Amino acid sequence: MATVSTSQLLNWLQQYFDKEQVELVVVGEPRQNDGTPSENYARVQQFIGSFEKKFPLIPITTYDERFTSVLAHQAMIDGGLKKKARQNKALVDEISATIILQDFLQQRK
């Protein structure tokens, strides 16, 4: 996993797709606790539109990302990471992305 800035994401994905065969891209869908879209929802939808234009042959789907940051922080605590390390947003995002992918794959079984 890697954390990539939003402005570089489509270019990074192009380079990744040039090297790796990809069946599907899973994107976290930001939702409030009650299931309604969060403030970042529109940005994710905009990204999906850009992705579909640039990579029309690669399917993309969303997966509810509620509580993944909480689970990521708990995993960091369980792993013995110090408070300063747990404040690293990039690391939290990477762990959250891993949780999203694991949950998505488990539900597909």
Q: Proportion of β residues?
A: 5-15%
Radius of gyration: 15 Å
Order of helices and strands: HEHEHHH
Helix content: 55-70%
The total of helices stands at 5
- Net shape: globular
- Low-confidence spans: none
Largest sheet geometry: 2 strands, parallel
Structural class: mainly alpha
Strand order of the largest sheet: 1-2
Question: Would you report the number of β strands?
Answer: 2
State the end-to-end distance: 22 Å
Q: How much is the average pLDDT?
A: 89
Description:
It is a single chain. The protein has 109 residues and is mainly α. Helix content is 55%, strand content 9%. It has 5 helices and 2 strands, in the order αβαβααα. The protein has helices at 9-19, 41-54, 68-78, 83-86, 89-108, and strands spanning 25-29, 60-64. The protein has a two-stranded parallel sheet with strand order 1-2. Strand 1 (25-29), helix 2 (41-54) and strand 2 form a beta-alpha-beta unit. It is globular, with a radius of gyration of 15 Å.
Q: Gist?
A:
The chain has 109 residues and is mostly helical. It has helices at 9-19, 41-54, 68-78, 83-86, 89-108; strands spanning 25-29, 60-64.
Topology, please?
Blueprint: H1 9-19, E1 25-29, H2 41-54, E2 60-64, H3 68-78, H4 83-86, H5 89-108
Parallel strand pairs: 1-2
Helix pairs in contact: 3-5
Please describe the structure with a list of short key phrases separated by commas or semicolons.
109 residues; 55% helix; 5 helices; two-stranded parallel sheet; 2 strands; mainly alpha
